[in-house]
Design brief:
Layout (H helix, E strand, L loop, with lengths): L20 H18 L16 H31 L17
Protein name: DUF3311 domain-containing protein
Keywords: Membrane, Transmembrane, Transmembrane helix
InterPro entries: DUF3311
């Protein structure tokens, strides 16, 4: 069954997606996790050591939980932003689950 998109302009094309502040925050959070490990000059040294490990090793290991938390926060923000964007595209606020069809 086809539903009419209330936000369309009548030309049949979907409405343009506008970047919101939430999506910008998601991009920044994910960008940090991508760019910081690529900046090798930031951690290309041996001191300070931690339990005998040079800085370049333990910094990279420390980045794993940091980037994981940033990715989780970005994911949760994207879920809420998607829920807000769905009505704009004529979709229900929550996607239907397969159990609803029974």
């Amino acid at each position: 069954m086809s539903q009419r998109n209330p936000a369309s302009d009548g030309s049949g094309s979907p409405p343009r997606r506008r970047a919101t502040g939430t999506w910008a925050v998601v991009a920044v959070l994910l960008g940090i996790g991508i760019v910081v490990p690529l900046l090798v000059g930031l951690y290309d040294r041996e001191t300070p050591t931690l339990w005998g490990f040079p800085f370049f090793y333990w910094f990279q290991f420390a980045m794993i939980p940091v980037v994981s938390v940033l990715t989780f926060v970005a994911f949760r923000l994207s879920l809420s932003a998607t829920a807000k964007d769905r009505p704009t595209f004529g979709l229900p606020a929550e996607p239907e689950s397969p159990e609803d069809d029974r």
